[in-house]
Recover the amino acids of this structure.
C-alpha cells in the first residue's frame, strides 16, 4: 500500500474519530437533559401526590360557623334595626322552662332599664310598667311562640338575650352613653315656630252647565249659577316647645342600643354563614381538583418512565460508541 492510501485511511479515521467525539458529546448532553426533565417530572409528581391527597381528605363537615358577638362599645352609635320574628305554622305552646326563662329575663332586663336608663327620665316622661316595657322592648310572647317546639332555636334565643343583657349592662356605664342620657335629662325646652299646611272649606260661586235649578237654564249660556264647597289650602304658623335637635330620650337611647345590638349580631351571623359556605365550596372544589391531580399524576409517572426508558437507550448507545472508539484508536496505534 502506497503512502497516499495510508494517508487517506488515516484522514478518514481522524474524521470518524472527530464525528464520534461530537456524537458522544451530543449523547452526553442529551442524557443530562433527560435526567433534568425526569427529575422535574418526579418532583412535580410528588407535589401532585401530596396536594391531591390533602385536597381529597378534606371534608366540608369539618367547617363550622364561628361564634359571633357584639361588644358594648359598639352600641354607642344609634342605628335603627331589630330582631326578626320567626313565623311558625299553627299554635305552639312554649314549655314551662321556656316560659320561666322569658319571664325571668324580662324582670332582669326591666331592672337594668329602671336603674341605668329611667334614672335619667324627665318629669313629663311616662314611667313604663313591666308589661309595657316587655311589649315595647322584649316582646316575650312573640319570642316564646317563635322558639316553641324547637330546643335549638330556644337555646340560640336564650344565648342571644343573655349576651344582650350583659352587653347592655356594660354599655350603660360607658361615658358616651351616660353623657347622652345626662344631656337629655338636663336639656331645656325651647320655643319653636314652624309652619303647618292645613286646609279649610269655603263656599264659592260658580257656573254649572248641567244644572236646571234656575228658570232660564235653557238660555245661552245653558246652565245655572251654583254654590260649591271647595277645600282651600293655607299655611299657619304654630309655636310649640321642644328639646334641641339631636337630643334623644332615655327610651330612644335604650331602643337604639338594643336595635344596634341585634343589627350587628345578624350582620355578623350572615357574614359568618357566608364565610362557611365559601370555605365549604372551596373544599368541594379542592376535592374535585385532587382527583384530577391524581389522574395527572398517573400521566406524569408514565412520562417519567418513558424518559427513563430513553435514558437507558442513550446510555447503551453511548457505551457502544465508547467501545467502538477505543477499538479504532487501538487499530490506528
Amino acid at each position: 500500500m502506497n503512502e497516499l492510501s495510508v494517508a487517506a485511511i488515516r484522514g478518514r479515521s481522524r474524521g470518524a474519530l472527530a464525528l464520534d467525539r461530537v456524537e458522544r458529546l451530543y449523547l452526553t448532553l442529551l442524557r443530562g437533559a433527560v435526567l433534568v426533565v425526569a427529575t422535574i417530572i418526579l418532583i412535580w409528581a410528588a407535589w401532585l401526590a401530596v396536594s391531591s391527597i390533602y385536597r381529597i381528605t378534606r371534608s366540608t363537615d369539618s367547617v363550622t360557623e364561628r361564634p359571633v358577638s357584639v361588644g358594648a362599645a359598639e352600641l354607642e352609635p344609634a342605628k335603627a334595626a331589630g330582631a326578626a320574628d320567626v313565623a311558625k305554622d299553627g299554635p305552639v305552646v312554649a314549655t314551662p322552662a321556656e316560659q320561666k326563662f322569658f319571664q325571668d329575663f324580662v324582670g332582669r332586663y326591666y331592672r337594668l332599664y329602671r336603674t341605668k336608663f329611667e334614672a335619667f327620665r324627665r318629669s313629663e316622661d311616662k314611667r313604663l310598667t313591666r308589661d309595657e316595657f316587655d311589649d315595647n322592648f322584649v316582646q316575650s310572647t312573640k319570642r316564646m311562640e317563635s322558639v316553641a317546639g324547637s330546643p335549638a332555636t330556644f337555646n340560640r334565643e336564650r344565648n342571644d338575650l343573655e349576651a344582650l343583657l350583659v352587653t347592655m349592662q356594660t354599655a350603660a356605664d360607658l361615658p358616651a352613653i351616660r353623657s347622652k342620657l345626662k344631656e337629655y335629662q338636663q336639656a331645656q325646652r325651647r320655643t319653636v315656630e314652624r309652619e303647618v299646611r292645613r286646609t279649610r272649606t269655603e263656599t264659592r260661586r260658580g257656573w254649572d252647565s248641567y244644572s236646571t235649578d234656575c228658570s232660564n237654564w235653557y238660555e245661552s249660556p245653558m246652565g245655572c249659577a251654583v254654590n260649591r264647597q271647595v277645600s282651600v289650602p293655607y299655611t299657619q304658623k304654630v309655636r310649640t316647645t321642644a328639646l334641641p335637635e339631636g337630643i334623644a330620650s332615655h327610651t330612644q337611647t335604650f331602643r337604639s342600643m338594643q336595635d344596634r345590638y341585634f343589627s350587628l349580631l345578624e350582620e355578623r351571623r350572615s357574614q359568618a354563614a357566608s364565610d362557611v359556605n365559601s370555605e365549604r365550596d372551596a373544599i368541594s372544589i379542592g376535592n374535585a381538583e385532587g382527583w384530577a391531580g391524581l389522574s395527572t399524576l398517573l400521566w406524569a409517572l408514565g412520562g417519567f418512565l418513558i424518559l427513563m426508558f430513553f435514558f437507558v437507550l442513550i446510555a447503551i448507545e453511548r457505551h457502544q460508541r465508547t467501545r467502538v472508539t477505543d477499538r479504532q484508536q487501538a487499530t490506528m496505534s
